[in-house]
Amino acid sequence: MTTFVDRVVLHVEAGKGGHGVASVHREKFKPLGGPDGGNGGNGGDVVLVVDDQSTTLLDYHRSPHRRAQNGAPGAGDERDGARGDDLVLAVPEGTVVTSRSGQVLADLVGAGTRYVAAEGGRGGLGNKALSSQRRKAPGFALLGEPGEARDIVLELKSLADVALIGFPSAGKSSLVSVLSAARPKIADYPFTTLVPNLGVVTAGDQRYTVADVPGLIPGASEGRGLGLEFLRHVERCSVLAHVVDCATLEPGRDPLTDLDVIEEELAAYVGDDALGGRPLAERTRVVVLNKADVPEAEELAEMVRPDLEERGYEVHVVSAVARTGLKELTFALARHVAAARAEADAEVVPQRVVLRPKGVDDAGFVVRREGSGDDEAFRVIGRRVTRWVHQTDFANDEAVGYLADRLARAGVEEALVEAGAVAGSTVLIGAEDDAVVFDWEPTLVGGAELLGGRGTDTRLDERTRRTSAERREEFHSRKDAQTAAREELAAERASGRWTDTDEEG
């Protein structure tokens, strides 16, 4: 059963924003107390966090679909909805986040490092937040914005100072087991190691990590075998140690030939430039001639040693079984690691914070003309206008009118006219996979405008209450009018204008 996974495709979806609510405050003797609809809560984010206890991406291989919590809708009495909980996903240190197209989005190094993989949608505003002096009683609220959904690739690249590389069965796992406390699987058949093994080595007062990279074969840089899966874990290592098997009995194999083959694979491998790493062929390299406990192997090692040193390599003859030459190798690797760390520290340039203010002529959107003839359309692309459309309840005429006002104020209508749009033109707002399509009218009027100004209610204009004297005066005026009416009717009856008749008599 698979226990180690170092590359997965993860489908993440942030939470949706909660809907705002349209509500009117009501209480005794005050049936129209004004709008009091609360806002919806924001949706939760999907966040990747480096965890020291995480060593594999196996959990995401088994369940690749992850979704954060939605925001709660608002309520009356100015009660805002709760924010959706963030979905925090633990990943091992050294995880590189890329898009499906290969663009590096984040390089997660260091415990606690966070990356927001998908942002939650904004909650919709309630009619209380939408009210103003001109819009005293909005009869609508904004919908919650959908959360961001995307596919990302998680790729684990081991963080080690030294990488032990070489052909299968060269003794790399045995070397890690004697140099550190790591206990990798060791056997006498090829490809015993299928996953990198990390070990911590102590040399004097210096500590560094060693990675046992699974065996490489010719054509590994082109994907033969599991070459690309193995070479991925060499990218971050500053020192490469060639472990050469001097006791192999395979025909056509000898230390110099093995070294040349591995060097060709290192030179052919193309790493991620976005990670800032140097090509593998430019890293510090040390040759470790292993299995010197075999007499013939020791003789062969001493025979090829001068040729390797003539090429410029530092050569160490060791035996993982007899544990000879290990101390010298340990301190030599520590020296190279210290030099690489010092060089890396010297190359670190403090990042300058660059502020790029928004230009005064930046409208926040662009209008793109697409197609021709009957298929001609005008697409409005912009994060803000797209959010406005997603938050509009198109079943509410007043909400549609509010959207029209916002688009007009933002300059969308002017931009459409400049692009050549006319009344009845097809207009799309949003990305190609999630656009709202409608027939454009230069002045979009909703049915609510026929009743007066949008968001107004004349009953809310009565800001003063009558005094007791005013109510008493109104009462007496009404009584006086009733008395005058009775007296007028009595006078008309007395004058004979009103008579009682009996049809039967």
UniProtKB/TrEMBL annotation:
Q: What is its EC number?
A: 3.6.5.-
Q: Which residues bind Mg(2+)?
A: S173, T193
Cellular compartment(s) = Cytoplasm
Q: Which cofactor does it need?
A: Mg(2+)
Q: Which residues form a coiled coil?
A: none
> Keyword set for this entry?
Cytoplasm, GTP-binding, Hydrolase, Magnesium, Metal-binding, Nucleotide-binding
The UniProt entry's GO CC annotations, sorted and at most eight, read: cytoplasm
Q: Residues in domain OCT?
A: 357-442
Designated name of the protein: GTPase Obg
